[in-house]
Amino acid sequence: MMNNMTICNYIVGFLGTIIGGMIMHASAAFSLAFTENGPGPGFWPFSLGCAMAAAAVVLLIYTFSNRADLSGQKVTLTTAANKRVYMMMGLVVLFCVLINLLGFYPASAVLIVAVMRLLDCKDVKGIALTTVLTLVFIYLVFGFLLHTQMPQSIFLS
Amino acid sequence: MTDILSALNMVLVPLNLLGLIAGVLVGIAFGCMPGLSVNMGLALLFPLAFTFHGIGGILMLLGIYCGAIYGGSISAILLKTPGTPASVATTLDGYPMATKLRQPGRALGLSTLASTFGGIFSTVCLILLAPQLAKVALQFSKPEYFALAIFGLSIITSVSSGSVIKGIMGGLLGLFLATVGIDAMTGTIRFTLDTTYLLGGVSFIPILIGVFAFAQVLGSIEDYYHNERSEQHMVIDRLLPSLADIKRVFVTLVRSSFIGTFIGCVPGTGGDIASFVSYDQAKRWSKHGANFGNGEPEGICASEAGNNAVSGGAFIPVLTLGIPGDGATAIMMGALMVQGLQPGPLLFVEKAPDVYAIFIGLLLANIIMGIMGFSLIRLFTKVVNVPLHILLPIIVMMTFVGTYSYNNSLNDVYLMVVSGFIGYFLNKLGFSMSAIIIGIILGGMAEQNFVGSLIMSDGNFNIFYTRPLCLFFLAAAVLSLLSPFIGKLFKKL
């Protein structure tokens, strides 16, 4: 399934208007008034919120007036290729969880293997070699040379 | 003279020199691999740059910047797949020379010669012009700086290839992100969601790595599903250009380097425009115009000298005015700021040795690039063939490690991941990542000088249009913002 740019622009325009409004609302909590110290701390972000909302409205109007042309532009979000990207995103989220549970190096090993499998790599030796060499490189450069303390497992710390 | 000697002292420290050489090497490798970009290389190695003391990290990034622009030509010539957009024009004659004429070594040699010539030419221009421009810019006050920031922001219309309105929205988002944290003028805490993590503002590096590197990896995974990359197995023979070739291309080299430097100075342009304009001019003036597109040496040299000459030219507005011309120079400007070197005319007064070190570094980077190009080209032609299923997991790991190592903070990693996810979707919707980054970088400068100007004028907005230079930059910003629409209007007429 594909979406066209008209629908996407309507969504972006709608969200942009809301975000602009939210920025204005949040900025209004600070002073907007002009004093001898210049405009209050809310003035600049409030202006940005106004500009964001205005730009979003312009996008909506532009999209409405060019809807026929924009409908021809496809935005792929649900193809098999996209699904692979979403699986990658899932793996990364999993990595962020595993990094706390297992520590950096074991979690990284899992991620590298998973990503290579996701990219249809079936060469077991290649996967093993890439995983080991990458982790050794990271350890040598960051752990050994730069003394970066990588995250450890919550069970060890 | 003392400043130049101090600068030489900084650059010639073995570790700094090593960083510069490593930067060029990594840059060429990034440039020559299709799917990886200059911005990605700079973003990935951005945190590593700060493990160097002083100017060393900046030198490494300069090496990546120069190397990556040149590296794009290798895959353009061998695979007809430009590693960077700046090398698209190189495919027009580089690939036919490598395949039809069976002279890949000659094509690579000419591109190396032209890239090195263009890079050195533009660096010399930078050295000659930047201090003069900085002297003029020293007279600027807060209103002019505000106008400059707005002018800098206006280039987002040029870097937003998808949609100008979305580019503006991205820029505004970046400007808003720059307001998070403690307000520099009043000390008020803004938009921190009651977390200490955001007190110092939104961390620039995780967002940079997220939108430029991680989001691009996600995009490459999507592309990988559709395309298996072709491999090249050409035998690289003679590399050094012959005297006859040098004679034939010399005028083109000079002309294209001049064009590239000039285009580089104009914010919002870039290597792709420079290479096409140079190519077009070379074809127009050449005695061998009919041979263009069939492996003409002048075609390769025009494109490569043009796109590499952008590097020095692009640093003129960055160093003298604090305006980044594109995503790559925005990243470089961010690196300078993180190192405590605020780009602008005062940099030439307060940190003159650092400025000279940047000049020398850029010059050396181009020379090293040439040496590496001629001596290691066979290695780089192997790099072109590294499969993406090996490359992408390594890059993913580097995005994590790079982000984490900067502050030893997992929160930075989470921010990078979220930025990457959002960046992937924004890319698909036609948003420009460069616009967001330019917004973040120029946000502080714009707000502080806006407020400062209004304090100077007791709240009177007249200050922005009663000062000639301020008015000039604001008018230029409006013209720049409207340029896409003006262009369309002219086409209709």
Topology:
The complex is a heterodimer of chains A (157) and B (493).
Chain A: E1 2-4, H1 5-27, E2 34-35, E3 38-39, H2 43-65, H3 67-71, E4 74-76, H4 80-102, H5 104-118, H6 124-145
Chain B: H1 2-11, H2 14-32, H3 38-49, H4 56-79, H5 88-99, H6 104-137, H7 142-154, H8 156-159, H9 164-177, E1 181-182, E2 189-190, H10 204-226, H11 243-265, H12 271-285, H13 297-321, H14 327-338, H15 345-350, H16 352-383, H17 388-407, H18 410-428, H19 433-456, H20 468-492
Antiparallel strand pairs in B: 1-2
Helix pairs in contact in B: 1-16, 2-3, 2-4, 2-16, 3-4, 3-10, 3-14, 3-17, 4-5, 4-6, 4-13, 4-14, 4-16, 5-6, 5-13, 6-11, 6-13, 6-16, 7-19, 7-20, 9-19, 10-17, 10-18, 10-19, 11-12, 11-13, 12-13, 14-19, 17-18
Q: Which descriptors apply to this entry?
A:
heterodimer; A: mainly alpha; 2 domains; 6 helices; 4 strands; 71% helix; flat; B: 493 residues; mainly alpha; 20 helices; 2 strands
Low-confidence parts of chain A: none
Helix content of chain B: over 70%
- Category by helix and strand content of chain A: mainly alpha
Largest interface: A-B, 63 and 55 residues
Radius of gyration of chain A: 24 Å
Q: Could you tell me the radius of gyration of chain B in angstroms?
A: 22 Å
Protein architecture, described:
By secondary structure, chain A is mainly α. Chain A folds into 2 domains: 2-76; 80-145, no CATH class. Chain A is built from 6 helices and 4 strands, in the order E-H-E-E-H-H-E-H-H-H. In chain A, the strands form 2 sheets. Chain A has a two-stranded antiparallel sheet with strand order 1-4. The longest helix of chain A is centred in the first third of the chain and has 23 residues, at 5-27. Chain A is flat, with a radius of gyration of 24 Å. Chain A starts with a strand and ends in a 12-residue tail after the last helix. With 493 residues, chain B is mostly helical. Chain B has a two-stranded antiparallel sheet. The interface between A and B is large, with 63 and 55 residues.
